Write the structure tokens for this entry.
Amino acid sequence: MTVTIRLKPGKERPVAQGHPWIFSGAIADPDPSWEPGTLVAIESAGGEFLGRGYVNPRCAIAVRVLTRGPEAVDRAFFERRVAAALRLRQAVVPADTDAYRLINGEGDGLPGFVADVYGPTVVLQCLTAGAARLQELLLGALHGTLAPAAVYERSSGRVRREEGLESVERWISGAAQPEIEIRECGQRFIVDVQSGQKTGFFLDQRDNRLLARQLAAGRRVLNAFAYTGAFAVYAGAGQAQHVVSVESSPGAVVLARRNWVANDLPDITEFVQDDVFRYLRTTDQSFGLLILDPPALVKRRQEIARGARAYKDLHLWALRRAAPGAFVMTFSCSQHVSRDLFWKIVHGAAVDAGREVQVVRHLGASADHPVRLAHPEGEYLKGLLLYLP
């Protein structure tokens, strides 16, 4: 029996226009007995068919829409979505690159799913109850389309907890691989898909790393929050004069050194294990290119004020360490920090630092992280390229 969810009068417009989320307050008669992840048909208050999705009555986002058409959500549906996603990646992923995001949740019409490709291995995230229940269908489509040698599931995080799900980390198929070597735009990196951040590598920063390689020539570069040193590698490949990578995690520093060596780069680098905020306050160095890619400093809406202060402090000290003629690449991956708020924070820091700053470009996630036009909430990574004359 198909579960049908009817919306309250006037609540159908976002769905009809393509938004993939239906909040609990928009449902006319919510039933707490609905099993999380159950497939549902969605109707307007007048009984007009709006689409199909899956429900979780325990969550504020009660329904995630899979399709606005009458098509069945079956193996063929997933094969079509995966094939379409792959066509996009084949068009936008650069040459000499074998690591990319294949499925980006709502951006690819598959809410709750993330699939990252690392050479012959796929790392899969099922972040919602619906994604967990539909996992086998997606796996079948992935194997039929890509034939990966191995699939590792890394389903964890805040969204999954809110969905009432426990973390799952396991090799679904293929041999366990503690480390995977990938290629990205001709650079080589070692990825730990089991214990690294996100799915093992920040694939969303690829296009920005290419920009850093372009800007680095002849400059002293600060790679703050360096993680495994990917920005540093690109800066070194771009003929930087000197590269300083600051990272608080000792394990990440070790891997950053290995990635530098793996690319046969000259000895123009130093790796500093330290807190970035402390380093910026205490160093007497100045830099011609500063890359600020912190972890999310605002993880919940209630933390916006505190996080904004942290972002401002970071930029205040970074701008003080910028040499005349320096570029600054700065990012926020905090979903609750809008582009407008981020701009205002950086502007406030520039005023306090007494620096004139030009915005050269808006930055965002790589092209293999598409966002639906009807779903601006999917654009989590915000960035600015700044110039200090």
